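User: Run a structure prediction on this.
Assistant: Running it now.
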Amino acid sequence: MKQVKAAWSAARFATKTLICIAVFLVIFTGVQIWSFVHTGGEEQSQLIESVFTVVGLECGGLLLKRIVEKIFSLNDKEVNPRDL
């Protein structure tokens, strides 16, 4: 258990976010399947579209942040908040 906690605290923010998104999508998909079976075939397309749009935007934002970090090498420099 300590190894899991150590690995989780050492992981990058983006990695933690992607793991949380993956868990959320698995749970969301399971609930949608249950809802589809329970309601007799009615699917909630607007909810599904909205959720996947938000998740896509979040992943796109993380990807853009990573690209900007690589281009401008922000990871290598320590930025003092007073310098901003």
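Helices lie at 2-10, 13-38, 45-72.
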